[in-house]
Each structure stands twice: as C-alpha cells, then as structure tokens.
Amino acid sequence: MELEEEFQEAKKWVEKSFDLNVNGEASLFEVNIRYIGGLLAAYYLTGEEVFKSKALELGEKLLPAFNTPTGIPRGVINLGSGMSWSWGWASAGSSILAEFGTLHLEFLHLSELSGKPVFAEKVMNIRKVLNRVEKPQGLYPNFLSPVTGNWVQHHVSIGGLGDSFYEYLVKSWLMSDKKDSEAKKMYDDALEAIEKHLVKKSAGGLTYIAEWRGGVLDHKMGHLACFSGGMIALGAEHAKEERKQHYVDLAAEITNTCHESYARSDTKLGPEAFRFDAGTEAMATRLSERYYILRPEVVESYMYMWRLTHDPKYRQWGWEVVKALEKHCRVEAGFSGIRDVYATTPTHDNMQQSFFLAETLKYLYLLFCEDDVLSLDDWVFNTEAHPLPVNHTNFKASVQ
Ligand code: DMJ
C-alpha cells in the first residue's frame, strides 16, 4: 500500500518497545492470530529478521498453555510467568473450539521457520483429540474439557466460539498446497453436518446458519458467522465436481443474507446479530445486538465472492460499506464503532478495534485490487487477515 513511513515506524516499535514479558492476562488465541500472525506476515512480506525472531520468541511463550492432560491448551496465559488458566466464563474450566482450533496455520509456520517440530506437534495433537471425540450429529460443540478431552456443552455455532475452527480446516489444507487431506476431510465432513442441521431458509427466501443448543435451533446469525460465505466460496473451487456449483450457490446465498442485514439498517452497516424469528428477517431484535464495532466478516465474504465470481455486485456492496463507514464511523482520530445501526444519527463507542485495520480495510482494499495482489493461489489469510504463504515446496514433513 506504499505506507513506507508508517511501516518503518511500526518496525522500530516492534524492535524497541514490544514487551514480550508483560505480566497480565493474555488470550492465547488473540496473541496467536493478531501478534504471531501479524509478525509472521510482516516477515514473509518484507524478509526482515526482526519479525521472524519476535514471532518465534512469542510462540515459545505460548507453549506452557499446552501442558494439560490432553494437550488441548487453556485459553488464558500470563506471558511473564508462563502460568495459564481457563476463562472464568467458560463452563467447567473448558477450552473454546474457535480458540484452540485457530492455531494451526501460525504454528506450522513457526515450526517451518525455527526447524523445531514442537509447534506443529502441538497443533497436530489438537487435531488428534478432535478426531477421537464423538461428535453429536457430526457437529463440533464449542466447549471442550482440556482435562478429559470431552465436550462440556452441546452448543454449536459457526459464529462466535466456533467460527475460525472451520476456517482453519480448509485453510490448513490450502496452505499445505492441498496435501493435508486430513484437514480437507474434516472440513468437508463438518460442512456437510452444518448444512444438514444448521442451514435454513427464511420465509422471505434468505439462507442463514442457525445456532444449535443441544438439538434445539436458535434462529440467529451473528455478524461473526458472516465470514462463512467467504469460507464456503474458498472451499467451493476445490469441492468434488458435482458439488462445486452447489457450494458456490450456498456461499452466494449466505453472503446475500449478510448483505441484507446491512441493507435493512438506516446506517447501511450491519448489527452484531440478526434474527429469523417472530416475523423478523435479517434484523436485530434485541437492543443489545444493534451495535457495529467495525467488524470485517461481511466485507471479507464480498472479497472472496468477488475473486470467485467477478460479479460486480460484490464491489458495489463493498462500496456501500466504504460510504457508510465514512459517514457514520469516521471521527477525528480515526474510525469508531457505533452503538445502534438502526439510529439515524448513531452515537460512537469511541473504540477503533485493531481488526479494523488488519481486516476490514484490508479486505476492502483487496476487493478493489487486481486478483494477483496477494493471490489466493499463493497466500492464505489467517483469521485476522494476515497473509501467510502457501507452502509449495516441502510441507509434508510438518503435517505428518
Ligand atoms: C477477528 O479478530 C477474527 O476474525 C476472529 O476470528 C473473529 N472475528 C474478529 C473480528 O470480528
């Protein structure tokens, strides 16, 4: 993006001020996707050693979280002391699917770059535990005990708490240059179960993915779940010939539903969650779900759909978002989330989340670029949109 000066400034900060021994509560998942993912991408895009060494140093600091009876990591870590524990709010000391299931891409790169198999071993073990445990109707619940390796609750969601686990299955396969067939099979099987049990069509013809609570459906879709249009589009190209068109259509339908959640608001930005019950379609019904915190998932799906189909509507939809962000979220110091997408003059939450730069703006930029800018043949985006290279050469060693 030619932001040379900003890059030099950030590099200097990483060199001099990035404190890896900070004492306090850090999320293993967030440290991995935001910091390690960001450092790895910066290394691969520039070749500057400082990013590689910081990523490896940080990776080592996460390893104590895996010292559990099953090897499923706990969610919280103190980088200074190496102590780790489970989130207080997660039932019965459980670990979260989207958290321990979203380490694979980065950890394989840490092994590649360091020559140390330990990182790859940790994530391959997670996969082993997941393959061993019985899955209700083929679905993956969101909470697993790191002590017993069993599910703690039967809540299934492709939105928050589940989301990027599924994304990392298909991306693990793509990042391995399509050699990691185990990841592909897990993805295919999971998607089949999701389609069978969670994908629904509203009376108004909108396709959505519901949540599952021990067999009972909650007809709600979170903004977070809107990444799934892009994920299914990404996988569609590589599906069996007879299923390809089906998945392209499903991806397009889900992306269209997410666009509707934006189009039906006054601000043209979408709510945190929208529902399909009691006559409601693609709108938030609860006051507490009306906010927009600059999340990327909808434009992320526009970007993948654009690259897959080149249908100009995805660029038009992306442009609607650009205009809405300018109108409602731009503030003096940057961009802010808003409290109610249905308000004519929404109030700001005074927060610019880091994923706004890492993801929302990056996906918008890529939506309007040529396809060879970070080509999907050569790069996979981690769940924070940090690009990691596809391993076209010697991946085999690290996935066995
Ligand atoms: C990001 O931090 C990541 O995409 C994560 O996987 C879930 N969503 C947030 C942004 O909404």
Write the layout of secondary structure elements.
Blueprint lengths: L3 H14 L8 E2 H19 L2 H14 L13 E2 L6 E2 L9 E2 H4 L3 H11 L3 H15 L10 E2 L6 E3 L1 E2 L6 H13 L5 H17 L1 E3 L5 E3 L1 E3 L2 E3 L1 E3 L4 H10 L4 H23 L9 E3 L21 H13 L3 H17 E2 L2 E2 L18 H14 L11 E3 L5 E3 L6 H4 L1
Helix pairs in contact: 2-3, 3-5, 5-6, 7-8, 7-9, 9-10, 9-11, 10-11, 11-12, 11-13
The chain binds 1-deoxymannojirimycin.
The site of 1-deoxymannojirimycin has 10 residues, from helix 7 and helix 13.
Can you give me a brief rundown of this structure?
This protein is mostly helical and 400 residues long. 47% of the residues lie in helices and 11% in strands. The chain has a domain at 198-369: Glycosyltransferase (Alpha/alpha barrel), CATH 1.50.10.10.
Structure description:
By secondary structure, the protein is mainly alpha-helical. The chain has a domain at 198-369: Glycosyltransferase (Alpha/alpha barrel), CATH 1.50.10. The chain is built from 14 helices and 17 strands. The protein has helices at residues 4-17, 28-46, 49-62, 97-100, 104-114, 118-132, 163-175, 181-197, 227-236, 241-263, 297-309, 313-329, 354-367, 396-399, and strands at residues 26-27, 76-77, 84-85, 95-96, 143-144, 151-153, 155-156, 199-201, 207-209, 211-213, 216-218, 220-222, 273-275, 330-331, 334-335, 379-381, 387-389. The chain has a 3-stranded antiparallel sheet. It has a 3-stranded antiparallel sheet with strand order 4-5-6. A hairpin with a 6-residue loop joins strand 2 (76-77) and strand 3 (84-85). It is globular and about 55 Å long. Mean pLDDT is 96; it is low at 395-400. It binds 1-deoxymannojirimycin. 1-deoxymannojirimycin binds next to helix 7 and helix 13. Residues 163-164, 224, 295-297, 355, 359, 383-384 line the site of 1-deoxymannojirimycin.
